Amino acid sequence: MVTRADLTRGHPRRSLFGNCVEVAHFGDGRVAVRDTKDQGTGPVLRFGGSQWRALLTAIKLGEFELH
Questions:
Q1: 55, 31, 33: which is closest to 42 by C-alpha?
Q2: Does residue 11 lie within any of the structural domains?
Q3: In a domain, 67, yes or no
Q4: Would you state the pLDDT for residue 5?
């Protein structure tokens, strides 16, 4: 399980589209995502490598309504 402290060690990167999301990649393929507006206190979404790739593919294919 990825904790908030682990997320920081994963060298989170902020979205290029604004300060809304931080994503941290780990050496074993795991990815953690958090909302930067929560200042590190909100929930952390955790994905396995294949789950992350599937999510990105679905987003690129327009399978989600983005606001």
A1: 33
A2: yes
A3: no
A4: 55
Maximum CA extent, the chain: 33
> Which residues, 6+ apart, have CB-to-CB distance to 60 below 8 Å?
none
The first and second tokens of residue 47, run together, are 């994905």
- Give the C-alpha separation, 43 to 35, whole Å: 8
Indicate the pairing of strand 31-35 with strand 21-25: antiparallel
Tell me whether residue 24 is in a domain: yes
Q: Find, among 2, 61, 56, 58, the residue nearest to 31 by Cα.
A: 2
In a domain, 34, yes or no: yes
How many domains does the structure of the chain reveal? 1
Which residue has better confidence, 66 or 6? Answer: 66
Percentage helix, strand, coil, to 5, in the chain? 30, 25, 45
Instruction: Name the average pLDDT for the chain.
Output: 78
Query: What is the extent of the structural domain holding 19?
Result: 4-60
